Amino acid sequence: MSSVPPPPFPPNDPPGFPPVDPPPFPPGPAAGAAGPPADRVRRFAREATHAVGAALSTPTEPGAPLFGQASSRWVRLTPYVLALVLVASLLPVTVVVLVNDYGVNGGIAGLLATAQTAPLLMAVARPLQAWWIVFAADVLGALVTMNTDVAEGRPWPWTPMVVVGYLGLMLAVGLREQRRALVSVWLVTGAAGFAFELSGEARGSGSIHLVLFVLSGVVLLITGMLRERGDAQRRLVEQETISEAERSRRTLLEERTRIARELHDVVAHHMSVITVQADSAPYRIEGLPDAAREEFSSIAASARESLTEMRRLLAVLRSENAEGERAPQPGVDRVQQLVEATIRAGLPVELSLAADLGPLPQAVDLSAYRIVQEGLANVVRHAPGARTRVSVSRSPNLEWLIVLVVNGPPTEPTSPLETSGTGHGLVGMRERVRLTGGRLDTGPLPDGGFRVAARLPLTAPLP
Predict the structure, then answer these.
(1) How far apart are CA 280 and CA 300, in angstroms?
(2) Where is the composition biased (Pro residues) (predicted)?
(3) Which end of the chain has less Cβ packing within 10 Å, N or C?
């Protein structure tokens, strides 16, 4: 009887499952202690470098000059004048100082001075691109003067002209670029100065790089705050303009809805009359043929269906918390009461109401009353105490209803009659007149008053 030796590694996995590879060896203490932090540092440095490069390579609104949107031509020209003054004053001084105090060849000094100062004119429209040129020229100038004989006490790596021109450039950069670009410019400026300081070339006033670093940071901070404040004010004005347009649109829609709700009662009255007449016609008129009775019955059914649909429409137009108005709609016959109530409230009003107005279309009747009501409310709100004249009459050809509300200039200040108001005013008047197919004329008077004149059709059909 032979014995089979057991396998060297007994299987631990259940049948049918693939064998699992043994886990890799854990990292040693040196790798575990130095690997992840070093990776994080490299990753942070790479991301920071990428962020700085992106900020310095994406200018804001390229090509738009500083103060280019100002209304005054002199304000628009001011940046160009200042840049021209800086270039004209710094360029010759830079050449003389580089030649005499830093021992630079005359031709090289001229090229360096031009590259360090001329881009200031470009900074008016493209400050970030100008910074690239000026910064590269300043660094090149520091490299050129590194191995020359610098006079005792002369600053290095930046000359005084470089500091002045660079601060002027920071004004343009701070007034145009975003915060990330400003921080990137400031950090790169400081890094370049400290790099030259660490190079071991200590000469003259070695703290000039620190002076430029601090002053450029202060200039960028102040101009950046001014730019952000201006942007915030501009956005606020734009938002107020949009809000005002939205309020006007909402007011117009609300007024149209209110007019539609009021006209529902007028139309519903006519439809109810049609229904009653159609239902009672077979009983009032003797000897009607069957075809006529069926026709009247169909008319009554159609009128009832129209009333039902109008009630559904009114339910859609009415707001959630609005309740149905149960009082009858006012008309011209109630203008007298409206004027008397206004007089009792302290507003001097004269009323001229024609006696031969006769029956008016209900839509015109209601619109005339509302126009007078809104006209008096506007006088109370905007010209309290002003003498006002209200006139309602027919035109000579009897085809138009003329509604006139004229007020003089406001007298001594008094408390308003209405404090809540609808806020619709002339918008509601225009909509009512447009609805009836009439015409509205409004405008100020030479003496400081205001005039509202509406002409509503009495015979012409609605548009």
Answers:
(1) 10
(2) 1-29
(3) N
